[in-house]
Structure formats: structure tokens, C-alpha cells
Write a structure and sequence with these properties.
alpha+beta, Immunoglobulin-like, four-stranded mixed sheet, four-stranded antiparallel sheet, 3 helices, 11 strands
């Protein structure tokens, strides 16, 4: 009888994994709203309260005023067709058949009715535990009556990512003369008045964004820079008061 001796060789397996840097959590709340929408003031108020609370740079609130409510009698001075189109892009991402106000999108990942304070606070708690993939350093800011110019330095990988540059008016009060909110004095905050996106090729660089004519010298303006991936998920943010 022949015996076959089987010798088992234990071959060590080495798995290499790239260490990914992480940074403090960030939460970006994008509210799609309108001065012509009767259900929006509650969401505007909630967003103002959230941004004013003690979140530091961890939470960034942005109000995008859409233009599709303008037809009912009041033209929102902050509304832009581009912001309505931006909301439609999110709608396609979320496989939604319609768009609505007030809608909040969180970090480009999910959405809910912007006046729902219970969901809002639950999401803030959830995203406060998730580290960011990128961090952004903004330096050498030069602001004139026409533009804002600055240098940026991005920490973390930039592959397949873009930089979104946003100018925000801190607060405005508007007397509404027509439409669903007529005779009300609405306080809007964190109002997006300009936005541009650049594809990232290098971690360091400079950029410029124009100041729109609707800004006033008395306005408090913020420069918000956002890192987003190819799925328009937000993975890093910075906020600078100008």
C-alpha cells in the first residue's frame, strides 16, 4: 500500500490597505426654500436657530431660494433657476418623482421636510459622529466690491472630487407684498447668493468668485468651501466670515 504524504504549506497572506486620514465631523444642511411658500417660514426659522446654536464650524447651514414659486405673485429676490435645477439633480439622485419646499438635504446623502425639528436634531446627532474625509484651509482672502479671491489647501485625497465655492448672506429681512406670505416680514438667514464648482486637480490652489449685485455693503457675508465626491456627497467643509 502506498501512502501519499501531503505537506501543507501555510502561505502567509498580506493585505495592504491604504490608511485613510479622517477629520472632525461636519454637517451641511442645504435648505431649499422660497419667500413665496407659506410652509417655508418655519423651516427658515429652524435653520436660523440651528446655525445660531453652539455648533461652531461643525454645522453649516445654506439656504437655496428656488424660483418655481415666483409665479403666484411674489418674486423672491434671492431665487435662482440654477438653485431649482440643483434641487432637481438631488431629486434624481434620491429617485424622487417631484421636488418640494421646504426640503433639507444633509451632506448630499438624504433629505427630509425642512420644518421637522425632530428629524433635524436626530440627523445632527447622527452626522456629528461621522468623521470627514477632507479638511480645507482657506488663506490670503482678498475681498473687493466685485469679487472674493482666496487660496485653498485641501487635506486628504482629492481623487474624483470637486470644490464647491459658496457666498452666503448672513441675514436679511424682507417685507412680502404679494403671494402666500403677503404682509409678512420674513427673516431669511444663510442665504446663498453665488455658487461655483471646480474640479480638483491639485490639493493647493487659488480661486475667485464674483459678488452679485444684490449684496450690500452692510451685509455680513460668509465664504463656504465644500469638498464633494462624484456622487455629490459632502465630505469636507470650511466656513470663513468675510
Amino acid at each position: 500500500m502506498k501512502h501519499i504524504l501531503l505537506t501543507l504549506f501555510m502561505i502567509p497572506l498580506f493585505f495592504s490597505s491604504e490608511k485613510r486620514e479622517t477629520y472632525p465631523p461636519v454637517t451641511v444642511l442645504e435648505l431649499f426654500t422660497s419667500q413665496g411658500c407659506s410652509s417655508c417660514p418655519l423651516a427658515d426659522k429652524l435653520l436660523t436657530e440651528i446655525q445660531a446654536s453652539n455648533h461652531g464650524n461643525q454645522v453649516v447651514a445654506l439656504s437655496y431660494h428656488v424660483d418655481y414659486w415666483n409665479y403666484i405673485g411674489w418674486k423672491d429676490p434671492f431665487s435662482k433657476k440654477e438653485f431649482s435645477n440643483k434641487q432637481r439633480v438631488y431629486s434624481q439622485k434620491f429617485n424622487s418623482s417631484s421636488i418640494y419646499t421646504p426640503q433639507v438635504v444633509v451632506n448630499g446623502k438624504e433629505h427630509f421636510v425642512g420644518s421637522n425639528s425632530n428629524i433635524m436634531h436626530a440627523k445632527l446627532k447622527h452626522y456629528a459622529e461621522i468623521p470627514a474625509e477632507n479638511s480645507i484651509e482657506i488663506t490670503a482672502i482678498d475681498m473687493t466690491d466685485d469679487y472674493v479671491k482666496f487660496n485653498y489647501n485641501i487635506l486628504g485625497t482629492i481623487k474624483d472630487k470637486s470644490l464647491r465655492i459658496v457666498l452666503v448672506i448672513d441675514e436679511r429681512i424682507t417685507k412680502i407684498e404679494r403671494g402666500e406670505n403677503r404682509n409678512l416680514r420674513l427673516k431669511n438667514s444663510n442665504i446663498v447668493v453665488a455658487e461655483t464648482i471646480i474640479e480638483l486637480k491639485k490639493s493647493k490652489g487659488f480661486s475667485v468668485i464674483s459678488l452679485p449685485k444684490l449684496t450690500k455693503k452692510t451685509d455680513k457675508i460668509k465664504l463656504i468651501t465644500i469638498i464633494q465626491n462624484s456622487d455629490i456627497e459632502i465630505i469636507g467643509v470650511s466656513k470663513v466670515n468675510l
